[in-house]
Amino acid sequence: MSAFKLYVPGDAAAVALGADRVAKAFEKAFAEKGMDVEIVRNGSRGMHWLEPLVEAVTPQGRVGYGPVKAKHVAGLIDAGLFEGGEHELRLGDVEKIPFFARQQRFTFARVGLVDPASLEDYVAHDGYKGLKRAVELGGPATVEEVFESGLRGRGGAGFPTGIKWRTVAQCPPGQKYIVCNADEGDSGTFADRMIMEGDPFTLIEGMTIAGLAVGATKGYVYCRSEYPHAIKAMNVAIKAARKAGYLGKQIAGSDYDFDMEVREGAGAYVCGEETSLLESIEGKRGLVRAKPPLPAHKGLFGKPTVINNVISLCSVPFILANGAKAYADVGFGRSRGTMPIQLAGNVKYGGLYEIAFGVTLRELVEDVAGGTFTGKPIRACQVGGPLGAYLPEHQFDTPFDYEAFTKIDALIGHGGVVIFDEDVDMARMALRHGVLRGRKLRGNARPAELDPPAGWRRWTR
Amino acid sequence: MSTGYAVSGGARGRYEAWTPNRGTEIISDHLAMEGATLPILHAMQEAFGYVPQDAVPLIADALNLSRAEVHGTMTFYHDFRHEPAGKHVVKVCVAEACQAAGGHVTSEKVSKALDCAFGETRPDGQVTLEPIYCLGLCSCAPSAMVDGRLIGRLDDEEIEEIAAECRA
Question: Which PROSITE patterns does the record match to this protein (chain B) (predicted)?
């Protein structure tokens, strides 16, 4: 046990802003001063304008400093960061920063808080409580619990997760699979990446519960190759879970078997579509399959398969641990629970913001995100990725709700919000959009998928 | 000591020279997997820096597939190289969030600083420049990846640093 503890995010966004250099500079400085400090590479708290945001453990709790560059390290040590010493970068308790304090962190509760490589830390922060309850409930009751929570697919389609699970559970016993779609390819989305990097055990637990619920013994996470940090974090966590008996035969002392592995994509955007993703895991070209049959009936290797997005599966441990009602109690209309919203593009306060459905786009982009980074007025927001729409200012009062967005010919999709200022050439963006999309799909999609996205339709009108 | 999982540094480094024996070895390491084709292709590229054409029949034989099937899979995915890349690989994100943050100007600057067009390897073999469609760094755009090292809020200073790295 070291005398001191310092959190320096290992999240890819923090790393892209210099976190590795900061960690190295601290390590070197501590060594020179003979200070015994444990440096934990945690996930990101989601306030990306403050990254790298380091947190020192002090007698008064964790005290944040940011954004830290390697050149600040000596000054921070001189300021006495382990006593929460004054410094121009001092942020105090980061959970009191309004951007963080206003959130409802159900799914992202542990991200940024825990050491993502430590199973002990996960368990100490309510990890595996959901699995424990699922084991007590048994498969069928676990499926119903997820159904009751009202959880809908967070990858974009918004299909009720409980119904997918029921369908697979009702298939005759035999080989079944749980597949996690971590091919987060749409620009403006990074929630999957953040949770896999910052709290990978949550995804493992969610997939394990899914396996138990429907009678599947094997899971695959199909992660895009553009996310090397996430792949690494998942593999480290899977190994630790296996070693501790949370994966493998008779998981956590129960009668259930479940194991899983990560499969790396190879730069094909279309593989985010669930059937082409299955083709890709099978080792084939990522061509979209005709439906029916549904993957729930004939999925991976022709076997019944639950295929869910990362955030859908990561919502499951909370639902099981706290009960369906605790989740369903928040939300708006038929959109229950919380949505991890990603604020990106030309944004002042960008990052991850988890909140109950019903928040309006205006609150998000004007209050929470603080408008644009350039300080110019917002021209439009792209919501839901390339398949979603560009929303102009007069639609900003639309509440975040699957149905409300459908009504205005838009999509919540994955909850990515990309902000553009008035300098954006919408015609060029739309054109680029069409070109990009065509190129990304490379003519491999079926005609239905080649239907112009809503953003494009809106513009051409 | 720092714990965690940060992967830094990166893809650069000396690759092995292709030999059929080494290829066979890589294949047999993966035979127990379901759907082993992609993992084998990734492993080949990691070992050799690209997927040698001679590996295709070996993979096909081992997995009981036709050569056409393996070739079809390999050519479908952008990641798999058919020939070695330059000494340095620079990937610049060209997706929407990075565009919103001025990415179109930045990417042109990178191309100019490296004297290399997108999708090409400079004739001296020093650098390959590629577009990438989202690194998930959309809240700190524009972004890039240089030999596996991530860069957010790409500015002129960073571009100069990249150019210097690629001269080495």
Answer: COMPLEX1_24K
Please give the model's pTM, rounded to 2 decimal places: 0.94
Interface contact B76, partner A, CB < 8 A: yes
CB contact B168 to A (< 8 Å)? no
What are φ and ψ of residue B102, in 5° steps?
Answer: 80, 20
| Beta-bridge mates of residue B150 | B145
CA A267 – CA A376 distance, rounded (Å):
35
Task: For CA atoms A234, A239, A243, A249, give the dihedral sign.
Answer: positive
- For residue B108, what is the domain's CATH number? 3.40.30.10
Spatial distance between the Cα atoms of A259 and A89, rounded to a whole number of angstroms? 44
Average pLDDT value over all residues in chain A = 93
d(C-alpha A79, C-alpha A63), whole Å: 13
In the prediction, which pLDDT does A430 show?
Answer: 67
Report how far Cα A432 is from the mean position of its chain's Cα atoms: 27
Among B6, B69, B73, whose Cβ lies nearest the Cβ of A20? B6
pLDDT tens-place string over residues A274-319: 999 999 999 999 999 999 999 999 999 999 999 999 999 999 999 9
Q: How far is CA A315 from CA A100, A160, A268, in A?
A: 19, 13, 27
Helix/strand/coil percent split, chain A, to 5: 45, 20, 40
At A109 the pLDDT is 98
Pairing of strands B149-151, B120-121: unpaired
Q: Which two tokens stand for residue B33?
A: 């997997």
CATH of segment(s) A119-329: 3.40.50.11540
> B72 and B28 in one domain?
yes
Cβ partners under 8 Å of residue B61, min gap 6: none
Considering the domain architecture, whether residues B163 and B89 belong to the same structural domain is answered as yes
pLDDT on residue A424: 79
Q: Which pair of tokens denotes residue B95?
A: 């997706």
Q: Kindly state the greatest CA–CA separation across chain B.
A: 52
Tell me: domain A4-97, CATH 3.40.30.10, correct? yes
| Second CATH level (architecture) for the domain A332-424 | Roll (3.10)
pLDDT band at A455 (very low <50, low <70, confident <90, very high): very low
Q: Which two tokens stand for residue A443?
A: 């003519």
Show binding-site residues of B for [2Fe-2S] cluster. 93, 98, 134, 138
- Residues A12 and A403: their CA atoms lie apart, in Å, by 33
Q: Both tokens of residue A130?
A: 């959901």
Residue B75 has pLDDT above 60, yes or no: yes
Angstrom distance (rounded) from CA A241 to CA A248: 9
> What mean pLDDT do residues B85-91 have?
95
Q: Does residue A105 carry a pLDDT above 60? A: yes
* Residue A66 three-state SS: coil
Tell me the percentage of chain A whose pLDDT exceeds 90: 87
Shortest alpha-carbon distance between residue B29 and chain A (Å): 15
**B140 interface with A at CB cutoff 8 Å:** yes
How large is the greatest C-alpha to C-alpha distance in chain A, in angstroms? 67
Question: Alpha carbon A185 to chain centroid distance?
Answer: 12
Q: Measure the CA angle with vertex A198, ends A152 and A260; round to 5°.
A: 65
Question: HSE-up of A84 (CA within 13 Å, CB side)?
Answer: 11
